Amino acid sequence: MNIDRIFRILGLILFAIIGWQAGVIFTQTSEPFTDLEALKYIIPLTLLGGALGWVIAPWISTRPAKLAVRSFRNIPIEDIIAGAIGLALGLVVAALLAIPLSQLPSPFGSILPFVASIVFGYMGAMVTVLRREDLTRLLSRTRRTPEPSIEKTITGPRPVLLDTSVIIDGRIADVARTGFLAGPLLVPRFVLAELQYIADSADPLRRARGRRGLEVLDELQNMDEPKLEITDLDAPGVREVDEKLMTLARQYDLAIVTNDYNLNRVAMLQGITVLNLNDLANAMKAIYLPGERLRLRVIQEGKEYGQGVGYLDDGTMVVVENGNRYIGQEIDLVVTKVLQTSAGRMIFAAPAK
């Protein structure tokens, strides 16, 4: 039995009792169980109250509770702590003012202390939440603890931040194994939490992607170089993972490794160094110049009449003019044009004579 059903039953009983009592009051009977004339009103009111309780019980119990829980989950813990501190300070001020306010003539002496508690409590919570960053900086000045991940590596190679997309992609492990990434690889805990959330998704595809990302992290952690570090670096007050990464990159002058096109563009507009594995893959593709020869198997027809299409080992598309009659054959080609597009490099070629 779920919680909604339990509260419906409790609501039915409670409102049925209220309906019974309303019927007794309405009929002004002293013997509700034996007065048949009164029962004509008491029983319908009891049934009506029970039905009303069954319907509205979840709306006054579990539904508001679930809404409150959902709302509190979306509130950063920093806001809750700042609000609690401000509320306590506001109530202290209200308590100090309650003594002189209570000496005022009636009815002000009994009303104003209560009003002061509400006003100063609300103002204290609102001010500390709005000035939370200033409060955080003030507290950090009195007790500053250096971030171990940054302090350890600041004198060595510059660390890089790993984005969720590049971890799920998996190629970061191959690139790291080659030694091209010398700096430590930093994975903030909020990125790890996002990976875990994806791995626990009900969608099988998302779940597989999340688990693939966790496997890649395990593979990186087992490498001697470069070092993978799970760091506690965070950006308080920022909710989105991409925004947190860019905030940390600006604050500590770090580079971000990503495959996310939108993150790549926004970070570059903010002057943040971005290492995009897709750009690296495109740059490492074999370069063919017009006039060079290559051998390729034509596998399908092209979009235009008479064209054939084949692919190099690195996935580069080769469009063969008059190549539809060679489908299924491996032939020698002469490169006629190389076109660089946003999707990658495309080569145009013609059968060698």
Whole-number total of structural domains: 4
Helix content: 55-70%
CATH structural class of the largest domain: Alpha Beta
Strand content: 15-25%
Determine the CATH topology of the largest domain: Rossmann fold
Q: Counting H and I runs of at least 4 residues, what is the number of helices?
A: 14
The unreliable regions are: 144-155
Gap from first CA to last CA: 80 Å
- Strands side by side in the biggest sheet: 6-10-11-9-8-7
CATH architecture verdict of the largest domain? 3-Layer(aba) Sandwich
Q: Given the C-alpha coordinates, what overall shape results? A: elongated
Largest sheet: 6 strands, mixed
How many whole angstroms does the radius of gyration measure?
35 Å
Structural class by sheet pairing and helices: alpha/beta
CATH superfamily of the largest domain: 5'-nuclease
Mean pLDDT, all residues: 81
SSE string: HHHHHHHEHHEHHEHEHEHEEEEEE
Number of strands: 11
Question: Can you describe what's shown?
Answer:
This protein is an alpha/beta fold and 353 residues long. The chain has 4 domains: 3-65, no CATH class; 75-140, no CATH class; 148-282, Rossmann fold (3-Layer(aba) Sandwich), CATH 3.40.50.1010; 293-351, Beta Barrel (OB fold (Dihydrolipoamide Acetyltransferase, E2P)). It has 14 helices and 11 strands. It has helices spanning 3-27, 36-56, 62-74, 77-101, 108-130, 132-142, 148-153, 164-169, 171-178, 189-199, 204-221, 241-252, 261-269, 277-283; strands spanning 160-162, 185-188, 228-231, 255-258, 274-276, 293-297, 300-301, 308-311, 317-320, 330-341, 344-351. It has a 6-stranded mixed beta sheet with strand order 6-10-11-9-8-7, with no helix packed on it. The protein has a 5-stranded parallel beta sheet with strand order 3-2-1-4-5, with helices on both faces. A hairpin with a 5-residue loop joins strand 8 (308-311) and strand 9 (317-320). Helix 1 packs antiparallel against helix 2 and helix 10 packs across helix 11 (204-221). The radius of gyration is 35 Å and the shape is elongated.
